[in-house]
Design goal:
The complex is a heterodimer of chains A (about 300) and B (about 290). Chain A is mainly α and about 300 residues long. Chain A has one domain. Chain A is built from 15 helices and two strands. Chain B is mainly alpha-helical and about 290 residues long. In chain B, helix 5 packs antiparallel against helix 8 (about 185-210). In chain B, a hairpin with a 2-residue loop joins strand 1 and strand 2 (about 135-140). Chain B is built from eleven helices and two strands, in the order ααααββααααααα. Chain B has a single domain (about 1-280), classed as ABC transporter involved in vitamin B12 uptake, BtuC (Orthogonal Bundle). Chain B is globular. Classes of the chains: A mainly alpha (about 300), B mainly alpha (about 290). The interface between A and B is large, with 44 and 46 residues.
Chain lengths: ~300, ~290
Amino acid sequence: MRSSRARRALLDAAIAAIVVAGMAIARGVYSNELMLFNFIMFLTLSQGLNIIYGFTGYLPFGYVGFFGAGAYGFALAVMHLHLPALAAMGCAGLAALVLSVILLPLLRLSGAYFAIASMAAAQALYEVIANPDLETVTKGPYGVSLAGVFAPAASYYLALAILAATLLVVVWLRNSRFGMSLQAIRDDSVSASMAGISVVRGRTVAWTLSALIAGLVGGVFAWHISVFYPDTAFDLSVSIFATVFLLFGGATTLVGPLLGVFILYGVYNVIGIAVPQYFQFTYGALIVLLVLFLPNGLVSLLTSRGIRVP
Amino acid sequence: MLIGAVIAGIFFGLYFTLVGLGLNLVFGVMRIVNLAHGDVLMLGGVAAWALFTSLGLHPMVSAILVLVVFLVAGLPLYYAVVPRLLRSRDSEMLSLILFFGLSQMIEAMTTISIGATERSLPPRLMGIGPIIIFGTRLPKAWFYSAAASAIAVLAVYFYLYRTRLGTLTRAVMVSRDEALATGIDVNKVSAVAFGISLALAGIAGVFAPFIMGSITPNMGVAINLTAFAVIVVGTLGNPLGTLLGGIIYGVSLMLMQTYLSSWANLLPNLLLIGVLLIRPEGILGRKVRRA
């Protein structure tokens, strides 16, 4: 029994390693670095969302709020404190962590209320940062430029490292006692707490972890892009893309969100950029069909037949 | 200035009652969140714009057309998605995602057919010059949209409390399963409620070019957040509580715009989070809804 569990964890870790190695090699052979970077970003974000949605059942529509907080945490640290990029990354993570602690009470809400309230929170943060009254601090709606720290190669590999760490967290959650207890809370919080699982602690850890990941991705995005506007950093479609990728592939698994990103974001890069409306339409239709006919994602084609998916 | 802001807020808030009313009716009857509500509203505005620019129809006439067409269109849409959705494990959560997909489809189709530019209607259609109420000057459009909203609230009240189908609707609101067990045709009742909800959104959309200045295909998300704030403040699932929610929203927005104008956009978001955290059951509600 014990060895089969170890084998499963090893398989999960091997898949994670292959993805990370693949993205590292891709940079050498494929010239569109921005596109590869976006892939890494969404791979990480959809796994970060997987941690909170897949393992606890809370779906934050405003997940982009943490991403934006990270991006602005990075930008403000560079602009005002003149920190080097790596230290500024620390500020990015910190900004998202602080935001997640402020928003902890939202976890008292359930289902749709939580989703909408988190979206309102992200929107509120956007209104604050994009407010022209704060131009001296955040540059308001006019955007920030961080040309001084621009380093495409370093930021690419840092993003890759964040992806690797995130995948490891998911592997750990899938194979650890803590991850199991989270899923027990998700399925039936009352029974779980009767069994001695600390519901509040479990949810808090998952929530802050997932926020931290989004914040770090936001920070590394700010570093890699180096010029951006509050509209880009708080673009609701970031949350939405990550959510759709996650649901399309299948939450709680490791490969589900990976498949979702590679398939859907791949299609997006082929047809979506030229005519975004046709893509938006296809996307919308896909979401509708998915919810109606395959609410547990692609992987449920296998899991419903009793096959374990990594 | 204070009294002016309050009066303007009441009229503005009445409009937002109309915006939220349908959303709340659907939530009350089906326990699902129609995230495409704002996009249906946008379609109502686009219809008013298209009918005026092509046929020269007055928006008041368009409003009646929109009412009928949206009401009828709601029925097949209901049967196409909602019954299947309600059978799923977590329909409230999945509804959010499903209707988000629908909203993306509507937004994309509208952008493809009329482009992404802002569309507006000449304000003179709603009458020239302001209307003066208790010494406060208001645009005539505000007065008419508030009147339309008041009529809509009364009509929904009449429907729910004075008609047979309305009584059945209230039975479904209390408990879908028990209503089903009593032999009520739950799907028919819900489909009509869904149609009414779309019709209400459509009418609100006809007034949108006048209240908001212009309409764009991507206005839906912001409208949804506001509409959700209004109905949460009012009490989710209680369509008549929307009236209170709308007025609270309108008055506080006008007060913000008078005294702290650059932060006014924060208001619906903060109001929503605040009410959800402090009093998730809404101002009129009794039932506590927590995780």
